[in-house]
């Protein structure tokens, strides 16, 4: 199975209004990491930067504007993904795994559109695997007990260190959490 652990850092929460500034991921094929990537880019010039979002990602407006062009990051991501996915084969897609996966899916879908490519789904299936949903199920089943669904809280419940709001650190922790859930389901 081809899994894409993906996380973004953005200038806000609205995919149409706000931009992507960091995209990090781990490509996991049959349980093995085959590639890891971490790309930074400034948002497109027409995107809005919410200052609260900049505080969360610990970047100033000047730092964000100094990042590389988003088209460069887009080309790099495409070159990485094309090594592992045949975009023309409807059965050869990544299953995306993340924390609040729908948010990142929507942000990246819009980012692809902003880069002139409306076909994000050529690489990623819409069968999203979300750590929040799995955490909720484990909480309901009495297997886990977390006070909230934040990535930091779930990571701490499993003893996984996390420097939150850097998408590379977040996605590494997300993958570890995912496999902790898998181990539990398998009965290990």
Word description of this protein:
- The protein is of the alpha/beta class and 188 residues long.
- It has one domain (2-186): 2-Layer Sandwich (Nucleotidyltransferase, domain 5), CATH 3.30.420.10.
- It contains 7 helices and 5 strands.
- It has helices at residues 51-57, 61-65, 70-81, 101-114, 131-140, 151-157, 167-186; strands at residues 2-10, 20-29, 32-40, 95-98, 129-130.
- A 5-stranded mixed beta sheet has the order 3-2-1-4-5, with helices on both faces.
- Strand 2 (20-29) and strand 3 form a beta hairpin.
Q: Brief description of this entry?
A:
By secondary structure, the protein is of the alpha/beta class.
Order of neighbouring strands in the sheet with most strands: 3-2-1-4-5
What is the CATH C-level name? Answer: Alpha Beta
Give the averaged pLDDT, no decimals.
96
**Considering DSSP H and I runs of 4 or more, what fraction of the residues is helical?**
25-40%
State Rg: 16 Å
Q: How many strands appear in the DSSP assignment? A: 5
Give the class from helix and strand content and strand pairing: alpha/beta
Keywords summarizing the entry:
single chain; alpha/beta; Nucleotidyltransferase, domain 5; 5-stranded mixed beta sheet; 5 strands; globular
Set down the secondary structure blueprint.
Layout: E1 2-10, E2 20-29, E3 32-40, H1 51-57, H2 61-65, H3 70-81, E4 95-98, H4 101-114, E5 129-130, H5 131-140, H6 151-157, H7 167-186
Parallel strand pairs: 1-4, 4-5
Antiparallel strand pairs: 1-2, 2-3
């Amino acid at each position: 199975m081809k899994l894409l652990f993906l996380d973004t850092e953005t200038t806000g929460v609205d995919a149409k209004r706000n931009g992507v500034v960091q995209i990090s991921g781990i490509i996991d094929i049959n349980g093995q990491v085959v590639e890891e990537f971490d790309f930074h880019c400034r948002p497109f010039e027409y995107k809005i930067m919410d200052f609260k979002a900049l505080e969360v990602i610990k970047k100033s407006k000047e730092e964000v504007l100094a990042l590389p062009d988003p088209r460069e990051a887009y080309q790099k991501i495409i070159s990485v993904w094309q090594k592992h996915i045949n975009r023309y084969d409807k059965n050869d897609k990544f299953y995306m795994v993340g924390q609040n996966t729908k948010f990142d899916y929507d942000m990246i879908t819009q980012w692809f559109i902003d880069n002139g490519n409306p076909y994000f789904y050529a690489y990623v299936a819409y069968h999203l695997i979300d750590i929040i949903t799995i955490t909720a199920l484990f909480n309901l089943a009495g297997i886990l007990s977390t006070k909230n669904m934040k990535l930091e809280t779930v990571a701490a419940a499993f003893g996984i260190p996390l420097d939150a709001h850097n998408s590379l650190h977040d996605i590494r922790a997300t993958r570890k959490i995912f496999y902790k859930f898998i181990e539990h389901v398998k009965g290990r």
